[in-house]
Here is the input.
Amino acid sequence: MKRRVQFTEQVVRFRDYMPAADREKFRRLVDRIAADPEGADSHLAYTNDAVTRAAWEDRVTVHYVVTSFFVVVFEADIYDASRGFNEV
Here is the structure.
Protein backbone atom coordinates (compact mmCIF):
# COMPACT_ATOMS: atom_id res chain seq x y z
CA MET A 1 0.00 0.00 0.00
CA LYS A 2 1.50 3.32 -1.06
CA ARG A 3 1.40 5.79 1.80
CA ARG A 4 0.79 9.50 1.54
CA VAL A 5 3.84 11.66 2.17
CA GLN A 6 3.90 14.79 4.31
CA PHE A 7 6.82 17.17 4.73
CA THR A 8 7.86 19.49 7.51
CA GLU A 9 8.22 23.16 6.63
CA GLN A 10 12.01 22.86 6.87
CA VAL A 11 12.09 20.08 4.28
CA VAL A 12 9.80 21.99 1.90
CA ARG A 13 12.03 25.05 2.06
CA PHE A 14 15.14 22.98 1.49
CA ARG A 15 13.50 21.15 -1.42
CA ASP A 16 12.56 24.45 -3.04
CA TYR A 17 16.18 25.62 -2.95
CA MET A 18 17.76 22.35 -4.11
CA PRO A 19 19.46 22.33 -7.50
CA ALA A 20 17.16 20.81 -10.14
CA ALA A 21 19.11 17.55 -10.49
CA ASP A 22 19.09 17.00 -6.73
CA ARG A 23 15.38 17.82 -6.57
CA GLU A 24 14.74 15.04 -9.11
CA LYS A 25 16.78 12.58 -6.99
CA PHE A 26 14.82 13.71 -3.93
CA ARG A 27 11.50 13.12 -5.73
CA ARG A 28 12.55 9.62 -6.83
CA LEU A 29 13.71 8.79 -3.32
CA VAL A 30 10.44 10.00 -1.77
CA ASP A 31 8.42 8.02 -4.34
CA ARG A 32 10.41 4.90 -3.50
CA ILE A 33 9.88 5.48 0.22
CA ALA A 34 6.14 6.03 -0.22
CA ALA A 35 5.83 2.73 -2.07
CA ASP A 36 7.74 0.73 0.57
CA PRO A 37 8.75 2.81 3.61
CA GLU A 38 10.17 -0.14 5.52
CA GLY A 39 11.90 -1.76 2.56
CA ALA A 40 15.34 -3.30 2.45
CA ASP A 41 16.89 -0.07 1.11
CA SER A 42 15.87 1.92 4.18
CA HIS A 43 17.43 1.75 7.61
CA LEU A 44 16.44 2.44 11.20
CA ALA A 45 17.77 5.86 12.09
CA TYR A 46 18.07 5.04 15.80
CA THR A 47 18.58 1.72 17.55
CA ASN A 48 15.85 2.34 20.13
CA ASP A 49 13.17 3.63 17.74
CA ALA A 50 11.23 1.37 15.36
CA VAL A 51 9.45 4.08 13.34
CA THR A 52 12.15 6.63 12.47
CA ARG A 53 13.95 5.55 9.35
CA ALA A 54 16.56 6.90 6.93
CA ALA A 55 17.11 6.37 3.23
CA TRP A 56 19.46 7.88 0.67
CA GLU A 57 20.09 7.93 -3.03
CA ASP A 58 23.16 9.41 -4.70
CA ARG A 59 24.08 11.83 -1.89
CA VAL A 60 20.48 12.91 -1.09
CA THR A 61 19.43 11.71 2.36
CA VAL A 62 16.07 11.83 4.12
CA HIS A 63 14.91 10.92 7.61
CA TYR A 64 11.26 10.05 8.02
CA VAL A 65 8.69 8.60 10.40
CA VAL A 66 6.38 5.80 9.30
CA THR A 67 2.78 5.84 10.55
CA SER A 68 -0.21 3.71 9.56
CA PHE A 69 -1.21 5.89 6.63
CA PHE A 70 1.53 8.48 6.23
CA VAL A 71 5.24 8.91 5.82
CA VAL A 72 6.38 12.17 7.41
CA VAL A 73 9.69 13.44 6.03
CA PHE A 74 11.22 15.63 8.72
CA GLU A 75 14.80 16.03 7.50
CA ALA A 76 16.47 16.19 4.10
CA ASP A 77 20.09 16.87 3.26
CA ILE A 78 22.69 16.66 0.50
CA TYR A 79 26.17 15.32 1.16
CA ASP A 80 28.53 16.54 -1.55
CA ALA A 81 31.56 18.48 -0.31
CA SER A 82 32.81 19.12 -3.86
CA ARG A 83 29.77 21.35 -4.49
CA GLY A 84 29.84 22.99 -1.06
CA PHE A 85 27.23 20.82 0.63
CA ASN A 86 27.71 18.93 3.89
CA GLU A 87 30.45 16.39 4.19
CA VAL A 88 29.80 12.89 5.54
About this structure: The chain is about 30% helix and 30% strand.
